[in-house]
């Protein structure tokens, strides 16, 4: 499919890469870009040859935020009718892991897009922030909720109320990102991570992602019960039999995805 706002690549076996491609406006996230991004992620999710996806921008900027020009004169009914925030929610329906490879600015909706991914690899120049308060609004695509669950209440309050920005080093220290790499290497690190995940048992990977996400949305008792249910269910898959047989026979497993 031909896109106007994203670029699509297959940089490694089992890996799908999507580049945000509105460089003149610092990858501002407008409706068309978000629609293209989510459509492509859904297509990759349905593609059996892809096991993990990476979203990235350019070295200077991941995404500087939502497109203010698109929102400035909007009324509440306009945003609801167009499903403005719903586009971010579509990322939650993706079954396979999604890694954000972030360099430069990830602000506002850009930070929220990275937060909605399953893992974040940052370059040394990455900067994370939620500056919506400067525009008379608040984060609306998960910023207040996902940040608080990741870095805690106090620091989230500072970022949301006082426009504090986190450097890559701070983001790693506070658990916001998985790792930090040089600008010349961060995307390769994210692709390598994605390739390693894509080489694992596909059903188990997707179910593991589901189980970890559930931990953020329910009580410990309910989460443990859900995890146990998923664990038992995997014993009905051919990959479980293959994985354990390969372990006992000291050989590399051949995953079937079934």
Spans where pLDDT lies below 50 across 5 or more residues: none
Report the CATH topology name of the largest domain: 2-enoyl-CoA Hydratase, Chain A, domain 1
Strand content: 15-25%
Would you report the number of β strands? 10
Assembly context of the chains: single chain
CATH class of the largest domain, named: Alpha Beta
Structural class: alpha/beta
Rg value: 19 Å
Relevant CATH superfamily of the largest domain: 2-enoyl-CoA Hydratase, Chain A, domain 1
Query: What is the average of the pLDDT values?
Result: 94
What separation lies between the terminal Cα atoms? 29 Å
Large-scale geometry: globular
What is the topology, as strand order, of the major beta sheet? 1-2-3-5-7-10
How many structural domains does the protein architecture include? 2
Biggest beta sheet attributes: 6 strands, mixed
Element pattern in H and E? EEHEEHHHEEHEEHHEHEHHHH
CATH architecture of the largest domain: Alpha-Beta Complex
Helix count?
Answer: 12
Instruction: State the share of residues found in helices, binned by percent.
Output: 40-55%
Commentary on this structure:
The chain is of the alpha/beta class and 258 residues long. It has helices spanning 31-46, 68-71, 76-82, 86-89, 109-116, 143-151, 153-162, 168-173, 186-198, 202-215, 220-233, 238-248; strands at 6-12, 15-20, 52-56, 61-63, 98-102, 105-107, 119-123, 127-129, 166-167, 179-181. Helix 6 runs antiparallel to helix 7. It starts with 5 loop residues before the first strand and ends in a 10-residue tail after the last helix.
